[in-house]
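so my prof wants the structure for this chain in the tokens format not the other one, which i didnt know existed until like an hour ago. anyway here's the sequence
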Amino acid sequence: MIKRWGARLTGVVAAALIAPALATAANAQAKPTDPVDALHKQFVAGHGVKVSHHSALLRAGKPLMEGFTTGKLGFARSGIVSSDLTSRYHLSGAEFEGLEDLQTPVRQIGVGGKTYASGETYKPYLPVGMSWVRYAGTPFTTQTGLAPDIDLAEHRTYQGLLATTNVKKPGGTIDGTATTVYAGTITAARLRELSPATKKRLGGLSETATKVDWKLWLGRDLLPRRFSVTRVDHDKEFGEVKQVTTSNYSSWRAKVVITAPPAWEVVDAKDLPKEPFTLPDPTFAVLPDAAGDTP
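here's what i got, hopefully its the right format
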């Protein structure tokens, strides 16, 4: 049951304006006029954005599970290509007895099609002198997207989301810039139509959770500063449960370099005598079941 709910909490992008040093009158005329264009102009190799996520599963208004993630994402022309994220969890209730190790920080580096994980959770499995476990792929939504639930880095998804805007008003100052907040509601079915990847991002979202409410704070440069997604589902055991995920973005246009850990500190998960339990996603895309997946 916990694994199924964990799959519903899925579980972070952008940076760098095009050569600001070359800002001429012609460039000024080419200034982005819509948020989608503004974001995609940030996808420049060697640049990135700082990001933080807070995901919560609420039952009767109280947190059942919470995840906190901070770090940075690296870009290339194709979009997000690397990540360096540190996560921790807060688990409430008897359902999570035996999962205390998940409440210690876990660092995950995604680069070159591999994920490297380090933290107290992994120490019991590591040989002396080793600090990192290497996994194939970058499986987590926070490693490949600007947000866990709805990926603004996907052109069609971002356009489709903005098309459902029904509120636009001043949003206060965030990351040192005045913002405008956009808000709306989109159906889960429409999100799946816009992007096949959304099915993974929405995790185990059942058909009862047909609506997804969202808020997006854009700066004067039309780049995201905050993005919040809320959805409600119903379960026979837990009743009405709400999931809220809020992402914050800062240091757009910053230079970002993300590299793999030193080879002599890394061991492949498949080479360990006992492979660690399923690697937890920073926003609960995967959460080990207390019944059998923990060490």
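also thought this was worth mentioning. The first helix runs from residue 2 to 6.
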